[in-house]
Amino acid sequence: MQQYNRRKFIAQASLLAAAPLIINPMANNTNASQLVHHVFFWLKNAGSETDRKQLIEGLKTLRAIKEVKQLLIGTPASTEKREVVDNSYDVSELMYFDNVEGQNAYQVHSVHKAFVEKYSHLWERVVVYDMLVV
Amino acid sequence: MQQYNRRKFIAQASLLAAAPLIINPMANNTNASQLVHHVFFWLKNAGSETDRKQLIEGLKTLRAIKEVKQLLIGTPASTEKREVVDNSYDVSELMYFDNVEGQNAYQVHSVHKAFVEKYSHLWERVVVYDMLVV
Known about the structure:
The structure is a homodimer. Chain A is 39% helix and 25% strand. Chain A contains 4 helices and 4 strands. Chain A has helices at 2-23, 49-60, 100-107, 110-119, and strands spanning 35-43, 70-76, 91-97, 123-133. The interface between A and B is large, with 56 and 56 residues.
């Protein structure tokens, strides 16, 4: 029995070790149909720390949607100010989907709809970029 | 000895299993100083397949820069046309750095400078977003 458990543990550990190599969308050998969905939000109360925190809390709820493979949330980085850099937004969400279909399903998902209903009063402008990985 | 090897293997497997949680920038438990650098290019010859391919080849050279932890290259996805979605760009690069310092080093790196020198005649407009993961 102990032997069985040990084997089982090794098998599980190996699976755990291998899984990120398969699902990691950061690898250079990416799935060509993989979709990156990058959204930038400008708050009505631009620069409001309270509203920013509230929006970030709302964005975290989107992780419950199974089509959302990964979600990173961020704010403007303090990189060098250059003419080409747009650091005027307040909050950003960066999502990965397996394909266009996953993104379509996300758009009409009840959790996403609830997020828009509850938090859209916070922002005055949204810009979305959908990128298909080549 | 067999017992020792088994223990060693379990320890290694556990380490392997744990490592991606630390180094995988896609995980939800991200390094708070991690920087996402997302650049959108509009070609002078908008929609030119030849120029797009050439720019993509150029972007791939940036993987040689050690500060560039990951690089995804993409083109607009055929998601639903909505007012908030900007799908007018031709090519996009999405880079991950460990921190702001990594991005600063990248900006002045010779490989990056060579890329700008060789390929900047292809684009007429660039928009950059630098996002610090929270």
